[in-house]
């Protein structure tokens, strides 16, 4: 049996305040490995949200054709063209957290980058195509590091080899089953996102809005989780806070109705974080 904690301002974990002599070296270096051919938007959304939620440094390793557009949009991100997995090694050595998967694709290039990430000891977040590749072969999992899996119901069904209907019929149990099977912290996305771990810990977010049913909203969430881990939060706590501020920001967008773009979340997510966890004081 498990007890479910509902996420509220009273039950949420907090991000530490910044000391007055804080510098970027204290706030983590997040590496985003994402964006195969034709999917440069997913990687940029993840990297931008990571930067905008306070990571000290953000590097983006992506398919070469995305480099100039990403730099033009957000020059604070260190954008690296990566054609071969060996080119990831120096970036992995610098990283304090890695997010892998948004728009990665499932070709040989994607598979080799995922294998390089899985070999490192750094904490990692697996999203989107990283989850699809994992579902195809369990041996792709990292063996030396703590990790977070962020499936939507379709990806969760692939991870448990069942149907989306079965996942949705028992969302909490599904999240716990994935956490147990993969020994990971799991964020099962969709209306009322569930966060679970392999020790039967489980939290439920009752915030959020159907206006968030659009392309890229999950890519943004991955970047937020990476930002909070980079700034020193434990994995489970980072997931809870990230899911909550992402969902609350979605509610704010809902007042404008249909047509919200995932990038619109950036400003309201910053506001939510500041309201819950002020930067100083
Ligand atoms: N701008 C860019 O570059 C963008 C790039 N992107 C990248 O595209 C890649 C493919 O990712 P993807 O999620 O679009 O496809 P996929 O994994 O087949 O899942 C779809 C199926 O899953 C299910 N399902 C999902 N949510 C559900 C829910 N709440 N509730 C219930 N079911 C739900 C649903 O299954 P169904 O109900 O149809 O059985 C649905 O058909 C990936 O790398 C991603 O990062 C995107 O991020 C977009 C922006
Ligand atoms: N109806 C909804 N209610 C609340 N949140 C939603 C709803 N639909 C989508 N979301 C949220 O939006 C995000 C969508 O993520 P995902 O399906 O991975 O999209 P993408 O791959 O396009 O980025 C998740 O965080 C999910 O919880």
Structure description:
The chain has one domain (4-10, 24-275): Ribokinase (UDP-N-acetylmuramoyl-L-alanine:D-glutamate ligase, 3-Layer(aba) Sandwich). The protein is 41% helix and 14% strand. It has 11 helices and 10 strands. Strands 1-10-9-8-7-6-5-2-3-4 form a 10-stranded mixed sheet, sandwiched between helices. Strand 2 (29-33), helix 1 and strand 3 (57-62) form a beta-alpha-beta unit. The longest helix has 19 residues, at 235-253. It is globular. Adenosine-5'-diphosphate is lined by residues 128, 152, 189-191, 193, 208-210, 212-213, 215-219, 221. Homotetramer. Residues 7-276 form the YjeF C-terminal domain.
Range of helix content:
40-55%
CATH class: Alpha Beta
Q: Give me the secondary-structure category.
A: alpha/beta
Query: What is the radius of gyration computed over CA atoms, rounded to a whole number of angstroms?
Result: 17 Å
Number of strands: 10
Integer average pLDDT: 98
Major sheet: order of its strands?
A: 1-10-9-8-7-6-5-2-3-4
N-to-C span: 40 Å
Q: Could you give me the name of the CATH homologous superfamily? A: Ribokinase
* Whole-number count of domains: 1
Low-confidence stretches: none
Shape: globular
Transmembrane segments: 26-47
Binding site for (6S)-NADPHX: 42, 103, 152, 219
Protein name: ADP-dependent (S)-NAD(P)H-hydrate dehydratase
Family: Belongs to the NnrD/CARKD family.
């Amino acid at each position: 049996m498990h007890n479910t904690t509902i996420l509220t301002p009273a039950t949420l974990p907090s991000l530490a305040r910044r000391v007055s002599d804080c510098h970027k070296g204290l706030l983590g270096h997040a590496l985003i490995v994402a964006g195969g051919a034709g999917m440069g938007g997913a990687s940029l959304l993840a990297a931008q949200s990571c930067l905008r939620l306070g990571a000290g440094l953000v590097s983006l390793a992506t398919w070469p054709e995305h480099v100039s557009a990403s730099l033009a949009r957000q020059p604070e991100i260190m954008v690296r063209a990566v054609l071969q997995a060996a080119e990831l090694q120096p970036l992995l050595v610098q990283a304090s957290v890695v997010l892998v998967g948004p728009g990665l694709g499932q070709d040989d290039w994607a598979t080799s980058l995922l294998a390089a990430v899985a070999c490192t000891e750094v904490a990692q977040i697996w999203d989107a195509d990283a989850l699809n590749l994992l579902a195809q072969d369990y041996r792709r999992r990292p063996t030396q590091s703590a990790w977070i899996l962020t499936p939507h119901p379709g990806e969760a069904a692939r991870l448990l080899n069942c149907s989306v209907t079965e996942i949705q019929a028992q969302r909490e149990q599904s999240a716990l089953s994935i956490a147990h099977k993969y020994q990971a912290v799991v964020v099962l996305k969709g209306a009322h996102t569930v966060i679970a771990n392999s020790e039967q810990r489980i939290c439920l977010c009752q915030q959020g809005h159907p206006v968030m049913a659009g392309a890229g909203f999950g890519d943004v969430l991955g970047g937020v989780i990476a930002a909070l881990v980079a700034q020193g939060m434990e994995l489970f706590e980072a997931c809870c806070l990230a899911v909550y501020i992402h969902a609350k920001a979605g509610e704010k967008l809902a007042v404008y109705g249909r047509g919200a773009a995932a990038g619109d979340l950036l400003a309201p997510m910053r506001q939510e974080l500041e309201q819950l966890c002020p930067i100083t004081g």
